[in-house]
Amino acid sequence: MSTPRLFSPLALRATTLKNRIAVSPMCQYRAVEGRVQDWHFMHHARFALGGSGLIFVEATAVMRDGRITHGCTGIWEHGQVAGLRRIADMHRLFGAAPAIQIGHSGRRGSAAAPWDGARPLNPKGADGAWQTVAPSPVAEQEGYPLPRELSASEIGTIVAAFASAARRALAAGFEVLEIHGAHGYLLHSFFSPHSNRRGDEFGGSRDKRMRVPLMVSEAVRRVWPGDKPLFYRVSAVDGVEGGLEIADSIALARELKRLGIDVIDCSSGGMAGAATLSPRKIRPGFQVPFAEAIRLEAGIATMAVGAILDGRQAEAIVAEGKADLVAIGREMLADADWAYHAGLALGLDNPHAVLPPQYGFYLERRARVLER
Predict the structure, then answer these.
(1) Sequence-separated (6 or more) residues with CB below 8 Å from residue 91
(2) What is the domain class of 5-369 according to CATH?
(3) How many other C-beta atoms are found inside a 10 Å radius of the C-beta of residue 101?
(4) Contacts of 303 (CB under 8 A, 6+ apart)
(5) Rounded to whole angstroms, how far apart are CA atoms 302 and 12?
(6) Would you call 180 helix, strand, or coil by DSSP?
(7) Could you read off the pLDDT of 202-254 as tens digits, one per residue?
(8) Which residues are catalytic?
(9) Exposed, middle or buried: residue 273 (CB in 10 Å: 0-12, 13-18, 19+)?
(10) Of 346, 129, 99, which Cα lies nearest the Cα of 229?
(11) Is residue 313 a contact partner of residue 344, using CB atoms and an 8 Å limit?
């Protein structure tokens, strides 16, 4: 029996993933001053044991004021590296490539956790609100605080912060790095005409609006080792009037490829409210067409995300050439052994070997003798 495409290895520079299954970066909002806590180790231990080829640590702020909430993980100072290294080492121990996503929240920062409403913190209250920044003083939603417009020199400082964060990610032992350029956060807000109203070299035409994302990508690629893969997450379409269309993201992907980005992680939305908490109805695989279009038109590897529910669906995505990887988020929260169950459903030869031998040995022995 041939190996399902989902379980075939994928070589990205000098890193070879054992399969095409990635655990999405999922914010937990449990850090203290950017430092990971026991919760994060428990959270990632579930995934490390589950057999995925690539596991991402959640969106991690490159600056203190680049957090989304007070509970966001950070990588803006050296003291945050040790905890992240412990997670990366755990991933590697069980055969997964350790990855981390770095970003800046922009105008969507200084907010409460999702289960506390995700609304902006009160700048006049005692909850520690901070001034948010953006390409233009345009509020995320009506009634929300106005962000402060960044100056050219401040943009340079943020670009340098991304590069410094990449160096710390390397020191922490990560094999794969992803730049977060989606979901309404700072880099996305520079690229989108919905939020970028500038008239200088960083706004106006599409080429000018993509300048900051490209500056960040170039700076990160310069310090991230040439043998290690670099991903970039996009919101392929904004889904709002006057926002980004797929042609814009294809154009950006072509430029990112030229700078040495290896994989485009294809999400969408987030320009006016949280992309992952929208009340809008969705269908399984609703974002896969974006990954397919960018892969075909920009000639770059892509990762598909969004309501990918089971192994058969994921197998079809990669086998039909719609994406090179699938990233699983909420289904992993419900079933950290998602990869194992996908292997069973797809008839993988010895699916029990997806799990550590301390688990797989006993499951395989029982499978041989169990009568149903």
Answers:
(1) 44, 47, 48, 55, 97, 98
(2) alpha beta
(3) 24
(4) 22, 231, 263, 264, 265, 266, 291, 323, 324, 325, 326, 327
(5) 12
(6) strand
(7) 999 999 999 999 999 999 999 999 999 999 999 999 999 999 999 999 999 99
(8) 185
(9) middle
(10) 99
(11) no
Whether 169 and 100 have beta carbons less than 8 Å apart is answered as yes
> Closest Cα partner for 98 from 33, 144, 132, 48?
48
Domain map of the chain by residue range? 5-369
CA-CA distance, 257 to 133, in Å (whole number)? 28
Tokens 């169950």 — which residue? 341
Write out the two tokens for 71. Answer: 């509970």
User: Which of 357, 287, 280, 360 minimizes the C-alpha distance to 317?
Assistant: 287
The string of pLDDT tens digits covering residues 292-327 is: 999 999 999 999 999 999 999 999 999 999 999 999
The pair of structure tokens assigned to 147 is 């962000």
In this structure, which amino acid lies at residue 133?
V
User: CA-CA distance, 212 to 209, in Å (whole number)?
Assistant: 7
